Amino acid sequence: KEPEATIVEKLKDVTSYEGEDAVFECRLSQETAQDTQWFLGDVPLQSNEMNEIRVQGTRHTLILRKVTLEDCGTISFKVGQHTSAA
């Protein structure tokens, strides 16, 4: 059984203006594609025309496109039992 991935580089708070993109990044201790999920508040995010979710090795990136005031809130990233929020 492989060891659990942990978050080694936590999310940082991002300030964006309406209409801009907001980019959130965190880095894990190892490459894993399972058990990872982004949230805006309590809502799980999927990759679509408004949100882009990227994984490059251990780096996980969320891009919120053309943010509005409704996008204001806590972004969190979860892997297994570990969570980082900004």
UniProtKB/TrEMBL annotation:
Keywords from the named record: Cytoplasm, Disulfide bond, Phosphoprotein
Location in or out of the cell: Cytoplasm
SUPFAM superfamilies referenced in this protein's UniProt entry, alphabetically: Immunoglobulin
Record has Cytoplasm as a keyword: yes
Keyword Aminoacyl-tRNA synthetase: no
Gene3D superfamilies (alphabetical): Immunoglobulins
GO CC entries: cytoplasm
Residues covered by the Ig-like domain: 3-86
Name by which UniProt lists this protein: OBSCN protein
This protein's encoding gene: Obscn_2
